[in-house]
Amino acid sequence: MSCADIAGRDEGKSMFVLIAYDVSTIDKAGARRLRRVAQACEDYGQRVQNSVFECRVEPQHWIVLRDRLLREINIKEDALRFYFLDSDVPVENYGCKEPINLESPLVL
């Protein structure tokens, strides 16, 4: 969801965002990133799985949280997804794992 989309939302209308992440913890830096990503999510929402959080945030808080999370992850080693549950924008994906195109044929 772009900043323009966020700015266009009604003042005071919260957003419902599901945040999922996968942080590589093969070294101490990764373990630190994992703790910092989890803490950022805990500051704005509630954990529903080990690496999944539900967050209901005001648009201005979403901008801060999104920026904080994107600064924490290592784009080459980690993955981060935002699912906007009350929006026409389905998913934002960042990091090393490419999203699967569910509209394309599945080849086994």
Describe this structure in words.
- This protein has 108 residues and is an alpha+beta fold.
- The chain has one domain (16-95): Alpha-Beta Plaits.
- The chain has helices at residues 3-7, 28-44, 59-72; strands at residues 15-22, 45-49, 52-57, 79-84, 91-95.
- Strands 2-3-1-4-5 form a 5-stranded antiparallel beta sheet, with helices on one face.
- The longest helix is centred in the middle third of the chain and has 17 residues, at 28-44.
- The chain is globular, with a radius of gyration of 15 Å.
- The model has no long low-confidence stretch (mean pLDDT 87).
Please sum up the structure shown.
This protein has 108 residues and is of the alpha+beta class. It has 3 helices and 5 strands; from the N terminus they run H-E-H-E-E-H-E-E. The protein has a 5-stranded antiparallel β-sheet with strand order 2-3-1-4-5, with helices on one face.
Q: Can you tell me the number of structural domains? A: 1
Helix-strand pattern: HEHEEHEE
Find the structural class using helix and strand composition: alpha+beta
SS element count, helices: 3
CATH architecture grouping: 2-Layer Sandwich
Q: How is the main sheet built? A: 5 strands, antiparallel
Please give the number of β-strands: 5
Helix content: 25-40%
Return the CATH topology. Answer: Alpha-Beta Plaits
What is the gyration radius calculated from CA atoms?
Answer: 15 Å
- What is the overall pLDDT average? 87
What shape does the CA trace take? globular
| CATH domain class name | Alpha Beta
Cα end-to-end separation:
33 Å
Spans of at least 5 consecutive residues whose pLDDT stays below 50 are none
Strand order of the largest sheet: 2-3-1-4-5
- Report the portion of residues in β strands: 25-35%
